[in-house]
Amino acid sequence: MAIKPLEDRIVVKPAEPETKTASGLYLPESSKEKPIQGTVVAIGPGRLLDNGNRAKPVVGKGDRVLYGKYAGTEVEVKGVKHLILRESELLGVFG
To answer: Which CATH topology does 9-15+34-93 take?
Structure first.
């Protein structure tokens, strides 16, 4: 089963949370931060404009993106957690 997002929605696979601090200490599960970056795995056709045309999405499949901590909706596909969010919820794209 694959997800095909609609309109300006994007499916993102979140990056794995850090398990160690910079100094080498291992973090317990309870103190791990929720990831705010991930990889785009699917994109919708784009937002429908008032004139009937579609706005081309800025991101593409495989792009690494940055998003808000509580943005999007979490879904599970084949046992893997993903986020579905609107393109407007993205904060940036890694170059």
So the answer is: 10 Kd Chaperonin, Protein Cpn10; Chain O (2.30.33)
